[in-house]
Write a structure and sequence with these properties.
This protein is of the alpha+beta class. It contains four helices and four strands, in the order βααββαβα.
Length: 98
């Protein structure tokens, strides 16, 4: 299932993690494991933020995805299913067929 993960990192924790290399290691590990179709990094509400869109095969992946962000970066995380335009068109076609 395609999901979007949005993580807002605690500024103090992420500052320390950026200085000691932990931030870079967590981001690299996460992108290597998840192979996101899109990855964006920005600031939101004064905090570092990342948004990844990736295919989650099973909900049992959640702890291994979330815990490094919680523990290493003090992140607040949102995960939600999302669709791209092809998924939306497929959904509308199925809806039309009843």
């Amino acid at each position: 299932m395609r999901v979007m993960l949005r993580a807002r990192m605690d500024t103090q924790v992420a500052n320390a993690a950026a200085k000691n290399g932990t931030l870079q290691k967590i981001v690299q590990s996460m992108t290597e494991r998840l192979k996101p179709e899109a990855a964006y990094f920005t600031a939101s509400e004064g905090e570092r933020c990342c948004t990844l869109v990736f295919d989650m095969q099973d909900s049992s992946q959640l702890p291994s995805i979330a815990e490094p962000l919680f523990e290493g970066l003090g992140a607040k995380i949102e995960l939600q299913p999302v669709m791209n335009i092809e998924d939306l068109q497929k959904g509308f076609a199925a809806l039309q067929q009843g």
